[in-house]
Design brief:
Distance between the termini: 28 Å
CATH architecture of the largest domain: Sandwich
Number of domains: 3
Strand content: 25-35%
CATH topology of the largest domain: Jelly Rolls
CATH superfamily of the largest domain: Galactose-binding domain-like
Helix content: 10-25%
Radius of gyration: 27 Å
Bound molecules: calcium ion
Oligomer: single chain
Length: 463
């Protein structure tokens, strides 16, 4: 997803474009329109001043006394817009639920809209984009930044590109006026020119192990493009550069699909690029997709040519992964750790909110054992059963442990028991206090019965 690539990639993009002499990247310019609302006469056919088929949310928090209607004298695009007159409450409008709102999850989506506010003190206006499944249940919600105060000019708000959930079937736009701690009793908000577009998706990389290549082995680079519109000329460009920025090789692939191909649901076009063996080193792979000559999507990955490391039974170096292992599979995690030459790996094992679940955690522990990497269980993120007792969202391990063993001992014991066959070393929090450790190690805490294990003061292996 483009938005997640970060500033490092933007720098790469700048140098890449300079080298290629290409047009600037603008995913909005090359996206095709899915939805558009401008609150003009055609969107109020029954002439009641309310945009047709929009749904206004009702309820105690969404009072009916807040006036909203089409303003025929103020528009960012053309003449009209949707105006809300604030009066001490919350307002939400959702765009129509019709065939126009259907989405195809093989595309990425972008949103652009315009807001103007006057005399807002505490309240704010924002716009959301929600993806719903076929039962009209919300799967994802993306929200723009909030706009408050007084703006003489219209403010542009954007979302994306975002990747819809695979089960997404509909997209809805939400216009929101949200009160602050003290709701504003007066003020105006205008919404106009709300637009959703879609664009293809480009994924580079494939199996992570392809990024660690032995000398004399050929290089295999995989790309996958989905969401291609029929009858439109696309072109995929890829290049490989070495650590000095020298281009090793490049290729381009014209892409044009027929309506028949496009009608196949979830059409994905794989591309495989085989390169001859390369010398030791780190290599960058850049890809971009053009639509009718306009640059619209970028992708970036890398690979290294090296000898594989041999697992060792002893070692002092380790990594700490306090937020888990992200999208890596258990075997990928173990492979990377073994190639990193480490012997210890800290993993969060207390949180029952791990996306992966206990069976995946056990797979991770098995894979690590195969590579002779010793896991250390981090008791750093308390599980929901503990955090819900605090009545707030953000609860740290230190908040829990300062309450004393009676409060947390059963929960900690459960985690220790669950993974006791594979994990002998545990750490409380990121950097636990000596007082708590002293309590535990003196037998006042719950860890003592696990005699073969150790509880670490934590920071020796880094954080
Ligand atoms: Ca308008
Ligand atoms: Ca109407």
């Amino acid at each position: 997803m483009l938005s997640s690539l970060g500033s490092a990639v933007l720098l790469l993009v700048a140098s890449f474009l300079a080298a290629e002499g290409d047009a600037p990247l603008d995913p909005f310019a090359a996206a095709s329109e899915v939805l558009k609302y401008s609150f003009e006469e055609s969107e109020d056919q029954n002439v009641d001043g309310i945009p047709d088929d929009w749904t206004r949310r009702r309820g105690a928090e969404f009072p009916a006394y807040i006036r909203s209607e089409i303003d025929v004298n103020a528009g960012h695009e053309s003449l009209q817009s949707l105006r809300v007159r604030l009066n001490g409450g919350r307002l939400t409008y959702y765009s129509p639920f019709n065939n126009g709102a259907r989405v195809d999850s093989s595309f990425n989506y972008v949103f652009r809209g315009w807001v103007r506010t006057e005399r807002l003190q505490n309240d704010a206006a924002m716009i959301s984009v929600s993806f719903l499944n076929h039962r009209k249940e919300r799967l994802q919600r993306f929200v723009t930044r909030a706009v408050t105060g007084t703006h003489r000019d219209w403010v542009r708000l954007e979302i994306g590109p975002v990747e819809p959930h695979p089960d997404a079937r509909f997209v809805l736009i939400g216009c929101h006026c949200v009160p602050g701690a003290e709701p504003d009793l007066k003020g105006d908000v205008w919404f106009d020119d709300l637009w959703v577009g879609r664009l293809p998706r480009l994924k580079l990389g494939g199996d992570l192990k392809n990024r660690y290549v032995r000398p004399q082995s050929p290089i295999s680079i995989n790309a996958e493009v989905s969401g291609i519109e029929p009858g439109v000329s696309f072109e995929l460009f890829m290049s490989v550069t070495d650590i000095n920025g020298k281009v090793i090789d490049r290729r381009n692939e014209p892409i044009m699909i027929s309506s028949e191909q496009a009608s196949r649901e979830k059409l994905k076009l794989p591309f495989r690029w085989e390169l001859p063996a390369q010398p030791y080193g780190h290599y960058q792979v850049l890809a971009h997709l053009d639509r009718n000559g306009k640059l619209m999507l970028l992708g970036e990955t890398s690979f290294a040519v090296l000898e594989y490391a041999t697992p060792r039974s002893k070692g002092e170096f380790g990594w700490s992964l306090p937020r888990g292992w992200g999208e890596l599979t258990p075997s990928e995690l173990a492979f990377i750790a073994s190639q990193g030459g480490i012997h210890w790996l800290k993993l969060p094992l207390w949180d029952d909110d791990l996306k992966s679940g206990p069976s995946v955690v056990n797979d991770v522990l098995d894979e690590l054992a195969d590579k002779a990497i010793v896991p250390i269980g981090l008791l750093n993120k308390p599980p929901v059963a503990i955090t819900k007792q605090f009545g707030r969202d953000s609860v740290k391990a230190s908040d829990v442990f300062t309450l004393g063993p009676d409060f947390w001992s059963s929960s900690v014991l459960a985690a220790l028991t669950k993974y006791s066959a594979s994990v002998e070393h545990w750490q409380l929090g990121a950097c636990p206090s000596r007082l708590i450790l002293a309590d535990i190690l003196s037998g006042r805490g719950p860890v003592r019965p696990f005699g073969r294990g150790t509880v670490s003061a934590g920071c020796a292996l880094g954080r």
